[in-house]
Amino acid sequence: MKISKALVFDIKRFAVHDGYGLRTTVFFKGCPLRCKWCQNPEGLSSQRRPIYFENSCIHCQRCVEFSKKNQIKYENNRPYFNLQYEGTFDNLVKACPGNAIRYDSEAYDIKQLMEKIKEDRVFFRDDGGVTFSGGEPLMQGEFLYEILKACQEEKIHTAIETTMYGSLELIKKILPYLDLIYIDLKVFDEKRHMELTNVSSKMIKQHIEYILESEYRNKVIIRTPLIPTMTATDHNIKSIANFLVNIYPEVKYELLNYNPLAFAKYELVDLEYEVDKQLKMFDKEQMEHFHQLVYQTGLKNLIIE
């Protein structure tokens, strides 16, 4: 079967928080979840879209001059894109002299992406490698499978950051080609998970249970992002930890402190940030409180940075 290209919205080099050692992190476009606090809103849509960068705009209105019918509207001294427009926005990207209109992603085939990854392998050394993130990388599953195989053939350490919201058949295919598996379990309660992410948590929990009962369980790190008033509640943390300890008490678990800077990206993609912008990161004492909640359940392998 011929594998089509994958849409990638960012390639971050020299990453130090996406796995062991120095890494190259590849961000795949598209995600089935709609978390209210999403850190990468530019990766939500599975479509290639234009983005407007106000700081680069010289307000020449060439975008108006070169636009096609129903492609944009120009208000407040800036263009607004009609994302229902059936066609590309190449004409606007090419016409903009200030590079204020750009696409949010690039398409790569396996060879092209491997060339990008191999450019950095001199920095990987013994413990670094490549991490596939998103969005949700499982949404471009066949491409992910092939690129993982290609990395393993080159003896490049592979990691994934995923919600495991995808088909179990695909998950079974990619597991042998992964050296490190980060899985986000954000909210335990089913109703609350639906409210905050717009999808059910049942599949995610089923897939976590499958992997933690498999031969790959020691490659797994479960993570929960701590979002004030949403995921960062005593009940949620204890529920997740109890769920994990009942499957595999030795599983590695990490609580990720809140990142208050993500809202700046939302203006670029014309989305509303649904978290209070005044909320701050948790301090050391607050983080210790959450850590103790986890320890009380009997889960011992808590990763603390």
From TrEMBL:
Its cofactor is [4Fe-4S] cluster. InterPro entries: 4Fe4S_Fe-S-bd, Aldolase_TIM, BssD/PflA/YjjW, Organic_radical-activating, Organic_radical_activase, Radical_activat_CS, rSAM, rSAM_sf. Its EC number is 1.97.1.-. It catalyses: glycyl-[protein] + reduced [flavodoxin] + S-adenosyl-L-methionine = glycin-2-yl radical-[protein] + semiquinone [flavodoxin] + 5'-deoxyadenosine + L-methionine + H(+). Residues 17-300 form the Radical SAM core domain. It is an enzyme of class 1 (oxidoreductase). Keywords: 4Fe-4S, Iron, Iron-sulfur, Metal-binding, Oxidoreductase, S-adenosyl-L-methionine. GO terms for molecular function: 4 iron, 4 sulfur cluster binding; metal ion binding; oxidoreductase activity. Residues 48-77 form the 4Fe-4S ferredoxin-type domain. Belongs to the organic radical-activating enzymes family. This is Glycyl-radical enzyme activating protein family protein.
